[in-house]
Amino acid sequence: MTDTLEIGVLGYRFMGKAHANALARLPMFFPDAPSVNRRVLVGRDEAALADATAELGFDGYSTDWATALDEVDVFYNLGPNAIHREPSVAALEADTAVLCEKPLARTLDDAEAMRDAAARSDAVAGCAFNYRFVPAIQYAKALIEDGELGDIRQVRGRYLQDWLLDPDAPWSWRLSEDVAGSGALGDLGAHTIDLVRFLVGEHAGPITRLSGHLQTFVDERPDPDGGPGETREVTVDDAFTAQLAFENGAVGTIEASRFAAGHKNDHAVEIHGSEGSLAFSLERLNELEFLGPDDRGYQTVLVTDESDPYVDHWWPPGHVLGWEHTFVHENYEFLSAVADDGSFRPSFEDAYRVQQVLDAVERSHDDGAWVSLD
């Protein structure tokens, strides 16, 4: 592999901008990061793609991902869920490193094929669960690993947004089962499931069974490509809830909604143990609420000291970080693993385990019963 990693990115809108921004920030704030070159941007709309190529700092663009794979060392698959499998598997079969957006795939079968391709490949494969790389989440992980919470007893997770509250909000691919697989469940719930596994998986064990419920509130929405009054069907959930049972006897609840008025991007987890508790909300990204064994009440920990995870790379202590920085941290860890022939987590195996839970929630809803996980 060359000293400079040649990067190809499929997707140039929301996630494309987030990752392109992270790649641009790396040499400024992480001087030990691998050298990278934004080689090729991949998409379908050639005119929009050409504009995005200049805006996001890429050398060139391609409307054919297969051709683009021949030019790069690392492939970022940031497209809709339905196109995660084929390009990612092709890249891994060519031993090209892959970072794929979440959820890993549209279906469990696709996720299994991607996991198996990663296992056969010599290349690094990672899934972009960026919230693992929030300094406060890393701090929470360390507290749990150090036994500060004792035995894990209960977990609560939620991810609430309100961007679909208006019934006249236009239809998008995220509302199509054929493209997205699921709605709030996969789009938001996948993040929560991964955080739960990351934080307590080694202590509470895996989720052994669950009960899930899905709900769609608006069945059709205005077609942005249609004429006046034309609509398209919504075929995914707008909200979900699930009850969880863990191997060690702990219990959990998770929920997500894109109909939660007043919540723009509220991703929160609470973990209660035999000796203490902690709570985190993305809307207060630099803070962690912690109750230790000897505390009389929760303490608010401001995770912005130079000794906190990743913070020494940024601003003086007390100068807070934001959402975009999670992508810089994620890209730093992933690309460092690629350059060093190392390992990266969340891996495709981790993402497959998340997909198993997503699939189980859907099966539980369809069957109206608790579902066991292998």
Strand content: 15-25%
Shape: globular
Outline the biggest β-sheet. 9 strands, mixed
Provide the low-confidence segments as ranges. Answer: none
- How far apart are the termini? 39 Å
Give short descriptive properties of this protein:
single chain, 374 residues, alpha/beta, 9-stranded mixed sheet, 6-stranded parallel sheet, 17 strands, 34% helix, globular
Would you kindly provide a written description of the structure presented here, covering whatever features stand out?
α2 links the parallel β2 (35-42) and β3. The protein is an alpha/beta fold and 374 residues long. It has helices spanning 14-29, 46-56, 65-69, 85-93, 108-120, 135-145, 177-180, 184-204, 323-339, 348-367, and strands at residues 4-10, 35-42, 60-62, 74-77, 97-100, 125-127, 152-160, 207-215, 220-222, 231-233, 239-246, 251-257, 266-273, 277-281, 287-291, 299-302, 371-372. A nine-stranded mixed beta sheet has the order 16-15-14-13-7-12-11-8-17. A six-stranded parallel beta sheet has the order 3-2-1-4-5-6, with helices on both faces. The mean pLDDT is 97. α1 crosses α9. It contains ten helices and 17 strands. The protein is globular, with a radius of gyration of 21 Å.
